[in-house]
Amino acid sequence: MKTIGITGGAGAGKSLILSYIKAHCNCRILLADSVAHLVKEPGQSCYCPLVELLGKTVLTPEGTIDKQKMADQIFGDEGKLKAVNAIIHPAVKRYILGEIDKERTRGQLDAFFVEAALLIEEGYDALLDELWYVYADENVRAKRLRESRGYSEEKIQSIFQSQLSREDFLRHCKVVIDNGESLSDTYRKIDEILKGANLYR
Question: d(Cα 173, Cα 130) in Å, to the nearest integer?
Fold first, then answer.
């Protein structure tokens, strides 16, 4: 079973590409964002440390961690953001590696894909077989973020500035999927990549 990380800037179209890969490859796809929500749930590894750090005011009436209240506390507080990330990121990594081990033991998959914006920053290139970079230029990504998410220009530029440059992505990623043109072109490229890796079904 090959382990592959999928990364790229906001608006590059990672979700759409993963849906296509899922339909054409015997694989499992795990989204780091979904895992990050899971590990914050009551009874999970990050719940108590986060409540201890942020206080009970971060909880909903049902006792779960309120995403917006947590975001409000972290916003503009670099120290608290680092402390939260130091709790969540290692837990997410442990969970993902545990799921990879389970799938290796089952032995039924050809590939296991992990999608995360911070794959490179979190050192996943040392843990996975290879990283794939979903690329689209900034104008294309900005247009998508405006149209699909309603983001302001200020928010878009803030996101772009916080993310790695194209050169950084290229240094760490073995495969580049250019998703800046038509979808049919993108899908054709993915077919070629999957066939080249003996993962196409």
Answer: 7
Query: Which value, to the nearest 10 degrees, does the dihedral of the CA atoms of residues 119, 173, 20, 148 take?
Result: 60
Helix (H, G, I), strand (E, B) or coil at 55: coil
Residue 76: its pLDDT value, please?
84
Residue carrying the six token digits 């970079």: 133
Domain 1-26+110-201 CATH superfamily: P-loop containing nucleotide triphosphate hydrolases (3.40.50.300)
Write the pLDDT tens digit of every residue in 79-97: 999 999 999 999 999 999 9
pTM of the model: 0.93
Backbone φ and ψ for 200, nearest 5 degrees, come out as: -80, 135
**Where does the pLDDT of residue 181 fall: very low under 50, low under 70, confident under 90, or very high at 90 and above?**
confident
Residue with token string 């993108």: 186
